[in-house]
Amino acid sequence: MTDSDSATYPKLPRNTVQRYGKPRGKYDCKTIHEIVNTTQVLHVSFPTSDPTDPFPAMIPMLGFMASFSSPDAPISEPLDLYLHGYISSRLMRLGKTSPTDEEEGLPLTVAATHLDGLVLALTPNHHSYNYRSAILHGYATPVEDADEKLWAMEKITNGVVDDRWANSRIPPTKTEMTSTQILRVRVVDASAKIRNGGPSDDRADMKNDELRAKTWIGVVPTWTAYGTPIESPENKVKKVPEHIAKFVKRENEVGEKTAVSAVKGE
Amino acid sequence: MTDSDSATYPKLPRNTVQRYGKPRGKYDCKTIHEIVNTTQVLHVSFPTSDPTDPFPAMIPMLGFMASFSSPDAPISEPLDLYLHGYISSRLMRLGKTSPTDEEEGLPLTVAATHLDGLVLALTPNHHSYNYRSAILHGYATPVEDADEKLWAMEKITNGVVDDRWANSRIPPTKTEMTSTQILRVRVVDASAKIRNGGPSDDRADMKNDELRAKTWIGVVPTWTAYGTPIESPENKVKKVPEHIAKFVKRENEVGEKTAVSAVKGE
């Protein structure tokens, strides 16, 4: 499937990607959802409940995009964002107590960012990063339905390591179910911004042979490395299980391949 | 120097780290500044100028903490945060046109997060991440002084790759100087949150021999990998220069070492 077959988010003034030169904004669900679902840590921002506090709150959280009502919906379709974080945080309290006037929920801004490479140009001004970044806006409400909560917990756990849910002690106890809070974010708009390729320098610098003879230009690809699993002193399973070993191997391969492909502009 | 020799940020309700069990909050400058200055992408959040827009704006940016008035100040002393991002963004406009009533500048919340490992426990509920995360609140104003701007550009460039500034075409041209905008953030409070160690499971699960016999527990360490530098087709320098090769080698070593040490709770 190509990105153009994907559903798209509305392009509003607040989520329109502004950039001179090469257009970098994307609004299709597939691109945006893939960035979110491959990012281990999301950054979630929201207005605080204290009107004298000028600073938005910001929390790193785990999240996963899926649809409870259409569990088989492909990533190119509209999906909800499910968030999990530290329970008694201000966010969860706000989600419970401060619906907006329209009772839509708590307005959240969510960022997911992959750094793919350091772009080293002739001049500091043209240094850049290769990256894939998504920003989503939506209204969050706590998930109250037990089936939906259990389903979201499984999605979020398997979003950390493939197939981890079935390879751990399930189902959660009653206490675990009540102490775990999950937010469902109804996404109202979103955008992605992608930069790839190599450095792009000014013509005057490119004609400067002396400069070019001494200044290396290119890209240092970057990705998230997953190291050899380190067992807990209490671990009783001799061999690292297949679901973990496979995950580590694949993430390292995909990470490197993605970063290297980005240099070629793929 | 230990963290306790460091200057500290004030502990206010909005930046006090809340967490049951083991205390994870840190308020010393050294811990917070080190997290920021080793993070390649910061997430910057701020209220939008549109009062009908409930969503805070969020932008991934580059930044570095240092002091222009005391350039030799150690990382354990109060420092300013210098930010660089896409110029004509809403942020830079806001920084120029919307000082708060007290003319202090634009209120920003800045997050810097390192993911150090995936903590795999017996039960999904006790799964966690090892991480180092910092949240800073401060007031941003554009840097107008040419000397300070040039100094900040050098700091930010060398924050991407050590010593890159002197190994590229400097000084910037007049056009580059005017087209580059740098924000100086006067930090008013900040906190860090650190999680390390292995999984910590409930007693009932730890006594469940059948569960323990089949459920691997431990940590998958993670860090940012820097790959083999890929030269641009226009590159004329045969060998990858020392400042890049050294940086790549060191970052990979430090990244892995930090993630592995975190598992031991160091």
UniProtKB/TrEMBL annotation, chains A, B:
Residues 1-23 are annotated as: Disordered. InterPro entries: Pyridox_Oxase-rel (IPR024747), Split_barrel_FMN-bd (IPR012349). It comes from the Eukaryota. This is Flavin-nucleotide-binding protein.
